[in-house]
Amino acid sequence: MNLDLSLSYRRLLVIIRTGHDDCAALALGEAIAARCGALLLLRAFDDPSDPMPPGAALSWLSTTVARLSGQVREVSGELIARQPLHEAMRADIEALQPDLAIKELRRESALRRWLFTAEDTFLTRHATRPLLVVGENQSPLPKRVVAAVDPGPADQEEALNGRIVDEARRFADAVGAELHLAHAVDPIIDLPADPTMQLVGTTPLMAEELQALQRGRFERLAETMGFDRSQCHLLIGRADVALEGLCERIGADLLVTGHHRRQPLERLLGGSVSEGLIGTARRAVMVIPDGIAPHAD
Length: 297
Known about the structure:
Layout: E1 11-17, H1 24-36, E2 39-45, H2 56-68, E3 74-80, H3 85-96, E4 100-104, H4 110-115, H5 119-126, E5 131-134, E6 144-148, H6 155-175, E7 178-185, H7 195-199, H8 204-224, E8 232-236, H9 239-250, E9 254-259, H10 264-270, H11 273-280, E10 284-289
Parallel strand pairs: 1-2, 1-4, 2-3, 4-5, 6-7, 6-9, 7-8, 9-10
Antiparallel strand pairs: 5-10
Domain UspA: 143-289
Pfam family, one: Usp
Organism: Hydrocarboniphaga daqingensis
């Protein structure tokens, strides 16, 4: 496959636990770096719940870098020793400015997630570059990718939709995957702001009009971005559930979605689709922050 090198990945950051040789995030980073000729940056951390013996973590990282040096154009590695870990990870993403940061999912108990902000949730909210969270048993190279957009009337939504599609297409081109476009309409969330319309918003007529409005917006967005109708999916229902269902039906390995920066009260009341999708950990999820700068040509 001939890649457009102007859009191909040049710097990949992979965040992994020490001693985790069968890490899906590391396998994915290695595979993409080998295909694109990208610089592979490893940042490894010693899991506080299962630390390696003194010196063993650095030895493991050195061995891993040596192995990868024969597989990719260039690779370097460092241990993350600073605390707290999630702040150190965020700082590395900010400092290194990778084209893509890849991280293995860190499973945390429901009680810990309730008491504290989960590590992956924190990075989803604060990372300034595209972040790809990969579970333990996910395929090294996704074969089908879904870009989830929200074609609303606001300029901010339009800009974020463009970045979501750009990054999804960039990834799909890099790994030779099939790309699909999706939008989920939740009739409860997407009601007009007018109080009178809110009162009648759950009626069948209103639901039909809302769906027709969103379908028109979605079709115009898909046409503008060069998608064939067979690649487009308008879904009805709660976004995270509907998108997961679509991925199951078409066999998608990766879901690309956006993330708006919200105040704590907004998160409490409205939730976050991207955080919900990462929380279920059924497939790899790439999150595009709303403040990301377009990649360089």
